[in-house]
């Protein structure tokens, strides 16, 4: 989505006519940053995808933009990711932001607040061991243990996709009562406990200050973000997707660079503080 500062804010052409005219449109975000909560996925939304999870990098200026948004929203900005809070902090170091991590397993309400688990049970060790063995199916499959979930990345081995999902299905068939959920993503198969997701994490986040009572604006790109897209109407919020027009969103961005530019433009378009 290519925009300049003067255009920032108009996604009217991408808003369905069936949606309520009372919805806050993007051109209004800059004027109402004091009343909204900005919720942002990381990989594929804020940051460009990389061959491996460890190779992502934070472009110049992004941390400054996020810190300014944090200030403009009085702290109501949060990163919402499948990554653990520790991993998020490593990526954005030395900056630290409020966040929902581990697909809703962890949460931090403020930059200096303590991380808390949102009643998410860790994955069974034996189950995790069996799932981890799938990485041996082919060179290039990368295993990522997130604590509350396990991810099998195959961006470097795209030919292994079918074999990975077949192996996961066999394990699930062998353990039909295991409370797990398989989440397909962009060149990744992630398995986690079924008792939580990004939507449950965001719902919990929005029940606490400084997010409580604000209108959430969520931007995400992947299948795992769809649970949050779905609850935005219940929270009186809006969702935007990246790279595709997902079901139920108010609009979309073409790529992460467009999201970064749009967020920076929101700051530039915000009314001067009195």
Any idea what the shape is? globular
- Total number of domains: 2
Which fold name is given in CATH as the topology of the largest domain? Rossmann fold
What's the pLDDT, averaged over the residues? 87
* Count of discrete alpha- or pi-helical segments spanning 4 or more residues: 8
Biggest sheet: strand arrangement:
5-4-3-2-1-10-11-12
Beta-sheet strand percentage?
15-25%
* CATH homolog superfamily of the largest domain: HAD superfamily/HAD-like
The helix content is 25-40%
Radius of gyration: 19 Å
Secondary-structure element sequence?
A: HEHEHEEEHEEHEEHEHEEH
Number of strands: 12
Largest sheet: 8 strands, mixed
- The residue ranges in which pLDDT falls below 50 over 5 or more consecutive positions are 1-24
Structure class? alpha/beta
The CATH class designation of the largest domain is Alpha Beta
Give the end-to-end Cα distance, rounded to a whole number of Å. 32 Å
CATH architecture of the largest domain, by name, is 3-Layer(aba) Sandwich
């Amino acid at each position: 989505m290519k925009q300049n500062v003067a255009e920032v804010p108009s996604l009217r052409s991408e808003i369905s006519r069936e949606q309520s005219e009372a919805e806050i449109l993007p051109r209004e975000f800059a004027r109402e940053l004091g009343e909204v909560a900005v919720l942002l996925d990381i990989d594929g939304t804020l940051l460009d995808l990389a061959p491996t999870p460890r190779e992502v990098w934070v472009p110049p200026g992004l941390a400054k933009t996020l810190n300014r948004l944090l200030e403009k929203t009085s702290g109501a900005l949060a990163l919402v990711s499948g990554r653990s809070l520790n991993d998020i902090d490593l990526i954005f170091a030395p900056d630290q932001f409020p966040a929902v991590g581990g697909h809703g397993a962890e949460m931090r309400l403020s930059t200096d607040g303590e991380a808390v688990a949102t009643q998410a049970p860790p994955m069974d060790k034996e189950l995790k061991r069996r799932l981890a063995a799938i990485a041996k199916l082919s060179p290039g499959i990368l295993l990522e243990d997130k604590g509350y979930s396990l991810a099998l990345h195959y961006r470097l081995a795209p030919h292994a996709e079918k074999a990975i999902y077949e192996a996961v299905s066999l394990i699930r068939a062998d353990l039909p009562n295991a409370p797990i959920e398989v989440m397909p993503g962009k060149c990744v198969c992630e398995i986690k406990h079924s008792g939580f997701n990004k939507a449950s994490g965001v719902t919990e986040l929005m029940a606490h200050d400084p997010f409580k009572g604000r209108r959430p604006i969520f931007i995400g790109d992947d299948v795992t973000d769809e649970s949050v897209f779905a609850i935005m109407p219940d929270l009186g919020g809006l969702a935007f997707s990246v790279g595709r027009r997902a079901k139920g969103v108010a609009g979309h961005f073409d790529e992460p660079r467009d999201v970064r530019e749009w967020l920076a433009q929101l700051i530039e378009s915000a009314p001067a503080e009195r």
